[in-house]
């Protein structure tokens, strides 16, 4: 168990360093951004990627992952997978819309546009999970 | 799709939790199948049939597709 955790941590650290280094090098060369800004941004993104990978890895190996509810044939898992699959298509559309609007947006709108997109996707996922749950499990179960 | 899971489970003296543990799913999954809200995957249907000592086609009964499938086969045979 410890070996697997160590392996995950090492892999995460390597990815983090690689992504951070790459982003820092690319952004640091941008005439619009200072070298330090580029490196800091690269490090921030790499940290986010690292945390994401760690949480995902830990979730896949935790007690919850081996519970009956997480079994492939369980209704809980099927509701979640169906909702996630449907939300993915919507999320791509929202991402495209945010990217297109971002080309013309300025000021505060540009700052809040990605957050608004994220809120829409999360709300979409919540509604789909709730609808799937009510259809396949019911309210009283 | 209708199922005889509740009937055969009761006849076997199993609780929903017992059956769920035997086929490695949650108890809520068994409840949803018995209520006809949730159609199980093919592997789960086979596990349920084995746990209840029966066959899949005796455990799950299609609402109306069964007759159509037979019609299609007979049409192909004629052609």
From TrEMBL, chain A:
Organism of provenance: Isoptericola cucumis
Highest rank taxon of the organism: Bacteria
Keywords, alphabetical: Membrane, Transmembrane, Transmembrane helix
Name of the molecule in the record: Uncharacterized protein
Membrane-crossing residue ranges in chain numbering: 38-59, 79-103, 109-127
UniProtKB/TrEMBL annotation, chain B:
Species of provenance: Isoptericola cucumis
Keyword field contains Disulfide bond: no
Alphabetically ordered keywords of this record: DNA-binding
Matches recorded under CDD domains: HTH_XRE
Domain of life, per lineage: Bacteria
Protein's recorded name: Transcriptional regulator
UniProt key word DNA-binding: yes
PROSITE patterns cross-referenced by the UniProt entry: HTH_CROC1
One Pfam family it belongs to: HTH_3
Domain HTH cro/C1-type: from-to ranges: 5-59
